[in-house]
What does this fold into?
Amino acid sequence: METAVRQIVAFGGGGFSMESGNPLLDEYVLGLSGRERPRVCFLPSASGDADHYVVRFYRAFPAERCEASHISLFRREQGPADLRAHLLSQDLIYVGGGSVISLLGVWRAHGIDEILREAWEAGVVLCGLSAGSLCWFAEAHSGFHGAPRQVEGLGLLPFSNSVHYRPGSEHGLAYQELLRKGMRSGYAAEDGAALHFVEDELSRVIASRPQARGYRLDASDGRVSEVRLATTYLGDSPMEAPRLVEATAAIAA
Amino acid sequence: MVSRILALGGHDFTSRPPDRAVSELMLRLATERAEGRPKICILPTASGDTSEQIGRFYAAFGERPCDPSDLSLFRLGRRPMALRDHLLAQDLIYVGGGSMVNLLAVWEAHDLSAILSLAWRQGVVLAGQSAGAMCWFEAGITKSSGRPAEEPGLGLLGGSLCVHYNNEPERRAAYLEAVGNGMPDGYGLDDYAGLIWEGPGPPSAVTARRGARAYRVTSSDTGVVESPLPARFLPAPAPAALREDIAEFRRIKSMRKRAGWLG
It folds into this structure.
């Protein structure tokens, strides 16, 4: 019996939600199943299941490319009645952006948190941007709700995560401050960059923009180090990155 | 300090007379409590903060003598707000309809349940319809997961509530069965019927549409009993446009009077 490979692709930002006309990240995640017409289910929970967001998803994932569906937890009277069966039958589950705190609250109320773990262990690829990236990690840095704060995620990946990252930006420094205060080490991705985890480890960093990068951040003894990771731009003919660490910068406390 | 809750079985924010009557009642409850211009905030959480629900609220209160606002937990990214400060500063907090399960889950995740409970104890009027009415009770009958099912609420009010009583026979049947099986006794509210709690006593019933009723629903040895409650009828105020016309007419009339044109 073939053992399922657990995979998560966490976008710092990008895909159809943020990069209209640039399908590189969305094509990458669709390609992971190896199927000609993969089944992909969109979870727009973090947006409150905004109608316009669902429409944009179906435009970006047309029927000739994949078998697309969505689950609206605010309109359970429509859509699949058996959420578990529907989610476990997918090749890819794609989580949209918005409020990560609201997202996790709604998921837990409907038992989606447990189903997603089960789907991940069964080999369904999980992906998403922004709140849809933060949710997979043990700890998340959210700047969405006002002052920067640490949020407990689903914990499929034993790291912390920050999205829309830019080294030296106010948002980036806020993540480093959380790390200094005891948040666990983790990964950050810029808009256009995505972190591809296979099992519990970062396998590669890919990007829909040539300059976009992912980062590894570690804290020890009140000092934070930020390591820029080698990133494969998907617009060229993609090839494996020769080494994962591109540059190391130590940031003083 | 009187703790007040207005629970509504169902309504909308259109310009039709029963909807205007409900909006007027909310404005009156907020004004009674306010020291200056009343502050009224909508929590559209149960709908997922839809623009439609928020837009209709502003259409109803935007031109009235109050300061309306919305607190959209799914939109804080574009507009961060100090949740506690904003809610405690209100005179009336209105909760819209939608998914009761999601409403309570999202509130809990944002620690709003405790803030709303505190606001209520401090005298802020809590109001809402459908999911936004059932949330204040020990339990309600929600269709959040598709079929009507019992769901616990915040429990600020003892007992249970079932909404859209006249319009959704399936929901009403599920409620009667649940009360027969041990769900706490409570109330059934038709669309355009409401109940007002002011302090610890029993509520008073109001209705904005002839025939819309509030029921006391209790279980007894012989089965579940529905008893209609006497309700005060809420007349609809004149629509905004008409109010302006009336004011204009009165201005002209008084000018004429001053000028001695009229006896």
